[in-house]
Specification:
mainly alpha; 0% strand; globular
Length: 256
């Protein structure tokens, strides 16, 4: 990657990490800028997990100098922010506060399109294939994300905390965008592609696991199964990601 491009991605990733920390700490500036009605503590934590995942995936591509792996990230941005922008502009007629967020979504979608155009013909530096267990796991991730995202889009009560209908649209597209990202990993099953996806998943899991554990003792009974199911996915995917990123002999630099 050209130096200016790597520097730009690094800056964007650092900003995303700052947003994740601000959401996690629920700083006043986050609440003041957030345009949608009613967002409780868990919703801000969830937003933090999404921002941290985006930063981790991009940082890995910068660290490994793998421009080809940026295609999946671009696909994620376009899949999420294009429909969300349309939804937010539609919502602006009854909530003028979302216009700025809608414009941000357009910019994010165009950024994703730029990543797609830049990376579409880039080859992978690391030629190793995706391990077989990860291929099977990614099939499960994609199915879970598509089903979960589609469900959240139409039923806000699926998540184990209270959200509004408007926020459920945003969250649903977050899940579906992640499904597109992992689906691309199955289409081009190379470790260079997979590592960034696992880095994002691990960051997402690390942000959520402690809040989920804290939520478990007090959660209403009608949400307990949903939370336990979500925790199972978070813990298992986190363990899988950590193993292949840091421990597996198939995927460590010495194995090249």
């Amino acid at each position: 990657m050209p130096r200016w491009f790597r520097t730009s991605l690094l800056i964007i990733s650092l900003v995303q990490m700052m947003i994740a920390i601000a959401c996690l700490l629920r700083l006043p500036i986050v609440e003041d800028l957030w345009p949608l009605d009613y967002t409780g503590e868990m919703s801000f934590i969830f937003l933090a997990s999404i921002a941290a995942a985006a930063a981790a995936s991009t940082l890995w591509c910068v660290y490994a100098d793998e421009p080809g792996a940026l295609f999946g990230i671009g696909l994620d941005y376009v899949t999420i922010f294009t429909p969300v922008a349309i939804s937010m502009f539609g919502l602006a007629s009854r909530n003028s506060n979302v216009i700025g967020f809608a414009i941000f979504c357009v910019i994010a979608s165009l950024f994703g399109l730029g990543l797609l155009i830049y990376s579409r013909k880039q080859s992978f530096v690391d030629p190793r294939p995706m391990p077989r267990l990860l291929r099977l796991s990614f099939v499960g991730f994609v199915l879970a994300l598509v089903i979960g995202g589609s469900w959240v889009l139409f039923d806000p009560s699926v998540l184990p905390w209270s959200i509004t209908r408007d926020i459920s649209v945003l969250y649903g597209w977050f899940f579906i965008g992640a499904a597109a990202y992992f689906g691309y990993g199955l289409i081009r099953p190379r470790w260079a592609n997979t590592a960034g996806q696992l880095a994002g998943f691990l960051a997402y899991d690390l942000v959520l696991v402690v809040p989920f554990l804290n939520l478990l003792p007090t959660i209403p009974d009608h949400w307990r199964f949903n939370l336990l199911l979500y925790m199972t996915i978070v813990v298992s995917s986190g363990i899988l990601s950590a193993y292949y990123l840091f421990l597996s002999p198939l995927t460590q630099p010495a194995g090249r």
